[in-house]
Design brief:
InterPro entries: RNF213 (IPR031248). With 117 residues, the chain is an alpha+beta fold. It has four helices and four strands; from the N terminus they run H-E-H-E-E-E-H-H. The chain has one domain (2-99).
């Protein structure tokens, strides 16, 4: 929820203010399954949280899930051609301004995946 994000960001913002010469990296996972995409857009693009400026030494990064194209007839294909293993979550379309930040790293090959699982 927006309140959880605000509570999460509060100590990070305070720490960033205390150590302004160090860049803090904040990672959010599965951003596009959240109902708070507008708030993520505000933080990532505008550098504010509910209109309050965030310290400039906070760098945001995030992971998103592939969106499923419901018109392709296959519930296991994504629009990028990757296989979807889970269909039990809702993936929301990103705000247009966040699309410019997307970078597709593809998927890991099976041998590399074994190193991480």
């Amino acid at each position: 929820t927006e309140e959880q994000i605000k509570d999460f960001m509060f100590p990070i913002s305070k720490l960033a203010e205390q150590i302004p010469k160090i860049e803090l990296v904040v990672f959010f996972d599965e951003v596009n399954t959240s109902s708070c995409l507008g708030l993520f857009k505000e933080m990532f693009m505008d550098g504010t949280l509910h209109g309050t400026n965030l310290p400039k030494n906070i760098f945001f990064t995030a992971a998103i899930n592939p969106s499923i194209n419901p018109n392709d007839g296959s519930q296991k294909q994504t629009k990028d051609g990757f296989q979807v293993h889970r269909l039990d979550y809702i993936v929301h379309e990103l705000p247009q301004s966040l699309n410019s930040l997307k970078v597709s790293y593809g998927i890991l090959d099976p041998n590399t995946l074994k190193d991480y699982v």
